[in-house]
Fold:
Amino acid sequence: MVDHVEVDGTVDPAAWSCPMPLRDHPRIVTGHGGGGRLSQELIEHLFRPAFGGATDDPSHDSVVLEMPTGGDRLAFSTDSYVVTPVVFPGGTIGDLAVNGTVNDLAMSGAIPSALSVAFILEEGLELATLGLIAESMGRAAEVAGVRLVTGDTKVVEERDRGGLTITTAGFGAIAEGVSLGPRQVRPGDRILLSGPIGEHGMAIMSLREGLEFASELRTDSAPLTGLVQAMLAAAPGAVHALRDATRGGFAAVLCELAEGAKTGLEYDERAVPVPEAVASACSFLGLDPTHVANEGKLVAVVAPEHAETVLEAMRAHPHGRDAVLVGEVVDEHHGIVVARTGLGAKRVVDLPLGEQLPRIC
Amino acid sequence: MRYLDEFNDPALARRQFDAIAELVTRPWALMEVCGGQTHSIVRNGIDQLLPDEVRLIHGPGCPVCVTPLEMIDKALAIAARDDTIFCSFGDMLRVPGSHDDLFRIRSNGGDVRVVYSPLDAVRIAEANPDKQVVFFGIGFETTAPANAMTVVEARRRSLTNFSMLVSHVLVPPAIAAIASAPDSLVDAYLAAGHVCTVMGTEEYDPLVARFGVPIVVTGFEPLDVLEGIRRALIQLEEGRAELENAYPRAVARTGNLAAQKVLADVFEVCDRAWRGIGVIPQSGWRLSEAYRDLDAEYRFEVDDLHVEESPLCRSGEVLQGRIRPNQCEQFGITCTPRRPLGATMVSSEGACAAYYQYRRLDVLQEV
Amino acid sequence: MCLGVPGRIVEIHDDRGTAMASIDFGGISKEVCLAYLPEAEVGDYALVHVGFAITRIDEASALETLELINSIGNLAEELGAEPGTGASPSGVQP
Structure:
């Protein structure tokens, strides 16, 4: 736990006992939102202590709550969307906002029921654009089997952020007997990936000022509830943990799993499917595909004796057609992820630091 | 991907590893000069798979790492101004200056933009006539043609709101400086392939003659790096010291003459301080007199700089191959990519960052 | 340094007096300055660094290099040389 000293109602950073990376950055930088190490530190050293959170609770995408009235456990989650541009190949910020929270809930094994939607709209945003986004949200909700039940709208001055930000929150019930999380992970478990990586992040990158390139890349944004339920049904109890690979990419998910489970993970670089366009774009920008965001892919940790069965169930589902076995959980180098390179060497995989920056070197 | 995948073939790499293991009879130390090669070596685990007798020393081939601290501080001062848009390659954003870095300047309200190509900065200048747009022109000879053409283009378009902050560094003087050191450990050099793509290979003949060391022009994919290593080792085992080109598909002896012509017009040689190493005479390029009006160092008065390097940082020793990153007391403890003390921990191919990012399990256990 | 990536020239055009090309990197294409490759033609492969093509990739050389690597060890195998003798390698000419 972390101590803080309240002086006149303000919190004194100097009194924090944890190593304080925040002292190096007295202000927020873009990297704090990147899903990598900076984001993690912000949560661990600023938010969690302030909110009285227990530090031994490995972070999940969504939280599982026992209801005081009894009955099913509920998963509850929230997410905010600030992506620009707000309309991009294959989707809009709207369906990201719906699918993002749906997927957070689905990773706990829940069946999402309802979402709230809060809009922060910038003055000057075209109604036609907002209409397009709203429509895409409605459609995404329908496909995902959830209702958009309540919300809020605020308007702020124009900020050049693409016109709007969206926050969704949602809940869903978890069936009895379903228990997923890093704590269930065991050495020997297999690591499965539901499909090719990097499509969403590179589709967005292709539109960024100065980096523009032409491609057929589209976001892979999709609701994964159906896929998850098919996996759970195929081999009850065999799936130990699920994470959807969003910001920070495939690498971030593995690192978080390793840290949360306190085991080691190893995977084969060559087993991870990377579409040619993603590989090419990453190549000329100097980016690593395993650090690129996805919006419709999950990583599953599965008991070894049932891995084949679960994999088959994934491949039978539209969102898991290209699912592959990529690696396993090991009882060594706890908390560390190791990749086996194409040449047969091993290298450590680290959380990306902050935002992805193209490089010349 | 054509011309990349084939040069990543593990079966062919195995042949090279086996051949190297067979031919080596005693310890040798090779220095790869280019940071891109360092990145490839550490990321793919090439150094892990070579026989113990072959030691790879990571050289100062990372322009991000060696850009002088004073130049970084100038860049930060310019970027912090209200009237500027500061454009840079992504690599430079996290490099620590004496007190700040471009990321922090941006979070404090400075208009700092990452670009892929320097020409993008010219476009930004055209689109923002009321702002001064400055491009951070760093890099080795490989990047210089792009920066040079950008300066030429800015002049052609008669832009009055564009300038470049130039800090180019040159490879041959760096090799000479390292090879001249009385306690130099390096037996052979892997020259930077893409630098030679631009400049050709002729300027390495005098270095071979003067220092009696093999110099092998080497590429970046695993097979290319291994081929450079293999040929250097063959020369060493046979007691030869010659210039060889192991990257012929992208390097011609004369280099790119069209590029060299523009370089000769736009740049002139100058002394350059290499961060962590010191001043190497005649080892840099700055804008020539004809282009001084587009030189940000002249357009902006940047005085009052208090340049101070972290006293704990041993980047210089790492850059010269005197210590390995994990031999520095700060490595992984007070100095991480998250909180770098020096530039070698920032750039993705600075040796310290490469070791930390991909650190092999044995390095990790030492730390 | 020097992230140089090979790509195929798909189209060449002029932008205000500067030669530019559309380069296909395999699934994506990008506009690149061709001023330094005055003799390049559509169909050629070029090495691209920060938005500039800096050389053509010589296909014959590429194949030669691959063949050379592929033939490493062959002579030794044919002659039945023992591994680990430090015997001089085969087929390598500077």
Observations:
- Chain C is about 20% helix and 35% strand.
- The helical segments of chain C are 59-71, 74-79.
